[in-house]
Amino acid sequence: MAPDQVRKILNAVPFRPFTVEIAGGREVPVKHIDYAQLSPAGRTLVVFSDEDDAADIIDVFLINRLGLAKTPTRRK
Fold it and tell me: How confident is the model at residue 52 (pLDDT cuts 50, 70, 90)?
């Protein structure tokens, strides 16, 4: 995936949680902007887990898909 696509999702206002699907079908959730960091060159994405402070280090070019969370529907 192109680093600019990842940067666009990370910098969206308002931020929407998303899932990073990497080669092999594994999915890594990004629940908040504070939990993800793209390297300056855009080659590496680091995603932290809020449960145990572990981190996934992801090669951006191995990302298959970014899945945005659905936005809540407003009631009238």
Answer: confident
Task: Count up the domains in the chain and report the number.
Answer: 1
CA 14 to chain centre: 14
Nearest Cα to Cα of residue 43 among 72, 12, 7:
7
Q: Is the peptide bond before 40 cis (omega within 30 degrees of 0)?
A: no
Q: Is residue 73 part of a domain?
A: no
Model pLDDT for residues 20-35, shown as the tens digit of each residue = 999 889 999 999 999 9
Domain that residue 51 falls in = 3-68
Q: Among candidates 49, 21, 45, which has minimal Cα distance to 35?
A: 49
Burial of 6 (0-12, 13-18, 19+ CB in 10 A): buried
